[in-house]
Specification:
With 163 residues, the protein is an alpha/beta fold.
């Protein structure tokens, strides 16, 4: 086989349609844009425009607000931690915190902190340091002989350093 023998699969490359080249081409005159008016022009089509009637997105009432101070926690369940311990990715004798969870591959990133949730069961005795935990998760960890330490939120800690 030579480089000059290489070729694409038949039909894998398609020539672009040349618009506005006579009615015989199938895409002549209006070039597939329909009739005249706003929609036939470039750059001016209005999304959500209802012919002058008040658009739906402006007729509906505004509701709620976005809290700019809200912390975005990454959630992790007990079954994920137990699976990581079983796979020898996490060391149960060491402290399990956001950093060790990211290193072991249980979490991709910690964001503003980690919140522990109670799905699944924990068999190993583990010391866990997280920024939040559900009651069921704390009970399950303590039942297995471990402990949960709730850390202060990161933003509050940053403000204390600054002030």
């Amino acid at each position: 086989m030579k480089l000059s023998d290489l070729a694409d699969n038949p039909g894998s490359r398609k020539k672009r349609m040349r618009l506005g080249r006579g009615i015989g081409s199938g895409k002549g005159k209006t070039s597939g844009r329909g009739g005249k008016g706003q929609t036939a022009r470039t750059g001016v089509r209005i999304k959500g425009f209802e012919g002058g009637q008040m658009p739906l997105h402006r007729r509906l009432p505004k509701r709620g607000f976005n809290n700019i101070f809200r912390l975005d926690f990454t959630e992790v369940n007990l079954d994920r931690i137990q699976a990581a311990i079983d796979a020898k990715k996490l060391d149960p004798s060491a402290v399990v915190n956001a950093e060790t969870l990211v290193k072991s591959g249980v979490l991709r990133r910690a964001r503003d902190g980690v919140r522990l949730l109670g799905r699944g069961e924990l068999k190993a005795k583990v010391t866990i340091e997280v920024h939040g935990a559900s009651k069921s998760a704390i009970e399950a960890v303590e039942k297995a002989g471990g402990s949960v330490k709730i850390l202060a939120p990161q933003q509050a800690a940053d403000e204390q350093k600054a002030g």
